[in-house]
Amino acid sequence: MPPEALILGFDTSAAHCAAALLSGDRLLAARAEEMGKGQAERLMPMLEEMLAEAGAGWGDLAAIGVGTGPGNFTGVRIAVAAARGLAMALGIPAVGVTSFEALRAGQNGPVLVALDARRGQIYAQYFDIAGGWGPVLAPPEALPPVQPRAGALCLGDAAGAVAPLVAGKVGLPRHPLAEGIARVAAARRSGTADRPAPLYLRPADAAPPREAAPVLLP
Are 20 and 7 a contacting pair, CB within 8 Å? Predict the structure, then answer.
């Protein structure tokens, strides 16, 4: 087994199932499969395949990183529930990492991460030591101001829509999403105590029932 801590990161926040395994700073294995549904059935076999590929087992993990969104409600819940269960069973920390943080991993300077939220809106977060903002859900033209209004590196699948608005430049993340999650989790694992929780920026589409719930008798 590699002598350095093994960190497993995974994400099902969109139409994909993605995972990465790190040993220290070294990427041992990675998977990314596009799928509109079926993440709940595919996630655990994918993780086991990656561990086997690296010659490792569940008991060798030092920490788990999980994507907490924003994204698909069901997909985010699948990954977060899996991470919580694994962390409890293995006695290791589970670290929640947003898509914004994962895509920004390894970048220096001002970074604006923008993700397509559909319906004419984007999810966005601006990282800058001088003062960032977010995460927010808004139309591109209604985003908070970026200061300085030039030079920000714009990342994510909606980067092209926001870069002209902030005089920024479109770039590529340094790491794929799952690997970014694992790297952020590795950096945070010693100081985390809270369980990972989903990041929901948009209210659920499901409407509450019109009829009152039945009364539960004592």
Answer: no
Within the chain, all domains assigned CATH 3.30.420.40 are found at: 6-100+174-191
Tens-place pLDDT, residues 3-18: 689 999 999 999 999 9
- Give whole-number Cα distances, 168 to 38, 63, 146, 165, in Å: 37, 35, 10, 8
Q: Which of 155, 115, 112 is nearest to 131 (CA)?
A: 112
Its pTM surpasses 0.85: yes
Q: Kindly report, residue by residue over 21-70, the tens digit of the pLDDT.
A: 999 999 999 999 999 999 999 999 999 999 999 999 999 999 999 999 99
Distances in Å between the Cα of 188 and the Cα atoms of 7, 13, 23, 43, 203 are 11, 21, 15, 23, 29
Q: What is the amino acid identity at position 108?
A: N
Six-digit token pair at 191?
């100081």
